[in-house]
Amino acid sequence: MVSIDLSWRSFVEKGDEPSFSIIYNNHVDDLYAYGVSLGFQKEICKDAIQDIFYKLYISRDNLHYIKNITAYIFKSFKHRLIDLSRKNIREETLDSVTESFTVQVTVLDNIIDSENAEILKKKVYSLLNGLTANQREVVYLKYMIGLEHKEIADILDIREESARKLLYRTMEKLRQQVSEEDFPEVLGVLFLLFLLHRFM
Fold it and tell me: What residue numbers bound the domain in which 33 lies?
């Protein structure tokens, strides 16, 4: 993360294009996976990525105030996705988009044999359905993207302490569900699923 921040400073202060490329290459795949997980169409995700990086590039002289470029990029991307989707769906709001945060579990069929896959898919669906959209999103941002609590708070427009509590309560809820169902490996499959989805 330090190298990203250094690259950002180099780009903002000197207009260093290789630094801008580093920033782009380090975020593009995570942004795309995040946008798809939020429920947006792939083309809209691609357009939003291009839009926010173009805006970063042409606005760099006015962006010296940004201290955490990763959080800024993710937050800008999320809002740009909403703006683009409004062209197709009127009345689109941040809440309605957040509610659609989801992960496909069909990928499990390719990893485990079909007999176990069906059982695990049901367990994973049960876990995911037991979480709110914000809970699924905070787990994704923390464990799949690797963001810090402050960065997550910026993206979700909440206080850092609230982000910390949200993540803690979410993990506790998952632990309780898995424990109650006596199926501890489901949690591992859930994180494997998040990880695989990140690279789809």
Answer: 2-95
